[in-house]
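Look over this today:
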Amino acid sequence: MLAAQNLPSVILLVLLKLAHGQYEHLGYPPGYPDPEQEHYTAPELAPDTPRIQLRLAGDKRKHNEGRVEVFYNGEWGTVCDDDFTIHAAQVVCRELGYVEAISWSPSSKYGKGQGPIWFDNLHCTGKEKTLALCPSNGIGVSDCKHSEDVGVVCSDKRIPGFKFINTLANHVENLDIQVEDVRIRAILSSYRKRIPVTEGYVEVKDGGKWKQICNEEWSQFNSRVICGMFGFPGERKYNARVYKMFARRRKPQYWDFSVNCTGNEAHLSSCKLGQATSPKSNGTCTGGLPVVVSCVPGRAFAPTPMAGFRKAFRQEQPLVRLRGGAIVGEGRVEVLKNGEWGTICDDNWNLLSATVVCRELGFGTAIEALSGGRLGQGMGPVHMNEVQCSGFEKSITECFFNKEALGCSHEEDAAVRCNVPAMGFQERLRLSGGRNPYEGRVEVLVERNGSLVWGTVCSEGWGTMEAMVVCRQLGLGFASNAFQETWYWPGAVGADAVAMSGVRCSGTEMSLSHCLHHGDHLNCPRGGGRHSAGVSCSETAPDLVLNPQVVEQTTYMEDRPMFMLQCAYEENCLSSTSSQVPANTYRRLLRFSSQIHNNGHSDFRPKASRESWVWHDCHRHYHSMEVFTLYDLFSLNGTKVAEGHKASFCLEDSECDEGIEKRYECANFGEQGITVGCWDTYRHDIDCQWVDITDVKPGDYIFQIVINPNYEVPESDYTNNIVKCRCRYDGHRVWMYSCHNGGSLSAETEQTFPGLLNNQVTHR
């Protein structure tokens, strides 16, 4: 009877756990508790257990991955992939201080190692305290070659309380640094209030305790690596006298080891341990001071006395840029050569080269070097291949590379994720009431009457660009939807009042507070509560790109009688003068085809659901987007002389790349959209696929096409939604030439083309 009474509560507990686990793979943003983790306890090994040390080496693309190398008997060697499993990878990662293993790779993915192959035919359960305790052929007994060297990818998270234990005291210079955490702790009052923290003690967390490092053997190279880890491109000198006075007043607690970096490492874990330090009895080290670093922030993050921080992120280096990334400091790497932007092929792409790009753009070291077009595929040429950097170059263009990119396609475009300074933006914004961490009502933290309070954002004018900034600020990827009503998401109690109104973003801002808004003078007639702004975010987004060559190759002119243009006239596809002419007159049409590719990582779907599509009886089809493309003809001084527009008659997959199946077809009221890797072709011979140039005089013009002009559907990159061409019209014939995508040419070349420089907000 008692068991039956407890049954509902047991079922409820199980359901709660299932609901919690449903979104576990997404990670948990601030405000959502992480799953509890065990606390680290140092392994107690039997006296006869072989003493080994591990490291991750080779051609890394993240600091927490690499070829598994074992130090034994005074020599580094590798591990064979025979019988290796995720359980063995788990033992490796745990021994290195990571929470768990993510994956493992056979066949020397991270390059061939050197020296002995210490382990072969490992049979681990995953519970062993050290790899040396896993059953194997025996240390050094192997029939493998280095082409079979195994690699692992470990989780980003470190084991709480992890303590480095050196079992090989005589070989400390061969070992990599393994600590739980690292930080720069601001000491001087002038730096404690400053965001980001750029100067202070370097402290390592070992065994759950924060400790300073003795500056006896500290070098500028060490400072360079530490600054890079925290998002800063460089380091500078500091006033040592002030820190000497501070160290006398407060007794430091020193770590047992020194640090030995070469300066091109992306992370402290890739640096070698220096010699063990022996603090004096009075608690000081031989050098007498804890290590201090002073870092130089990139311009986008540098505080200024008056304006605080730069209001929007801007690329600093005109020869290199990032495109297609969801958050600041990540994106596909593009370089400018001969006035044209192009990509880098991912052959040999690694952390060293990625770090050069990151520092060049005013960020720190690279978190990850991405390959395989992971952050979207570019357009245009592939400028660089097989890039090899030392890590000290000022620009990626100074590195050795192969100019030939034969065999490289945009499916191999290289990308980066960079360390950026901790600006604290995430703490001032939250999503509340959503079904998962990636959606909800937007709530901001503002100062009211001397105290910080949470409130909502007025939804008047709230759109895709504002939602994009919210998702970026929270590190949740791209916006997938912007909501002007959120009654279905009950937000935090007491946060219903409007705290921000009149928000207008360009889409490049790092924080919602950097967008234009009303400040303290709130004005929101609709009020907060159910009418508050909301968003949903996604890790991926579509990216529509027009093919400029198709426009150039298919352009022609047609004279068409008005009586054959009745449907087009009803849909406003003709110039205004067409309403004043008889039916037997002709209109002169500039016709062309549009081929629209989806180069992103999710399908492009119309914002409106199928039941709200508009039926157009004349053309006998549905419009899922009332304005899908704009066509404009400009004079050379930038004056618009003719225009056209096109609703999405039908968004469907006309053709797809090899191996990709079509998903969208308009026939029989089917679903509309463009699949990733597919394209939709609007042929030159369909209605409204033109500009009415009846009233245009002969001359030279600029022709421009913009897709998704009102940003109805979120994309990873709007700058490439535009195509511009030179156009010559002599009254009888028309020529279209020099067609290119927006943002594909240098700024100097682009300025010779009037109209929109790229598809950024200009009309709101």
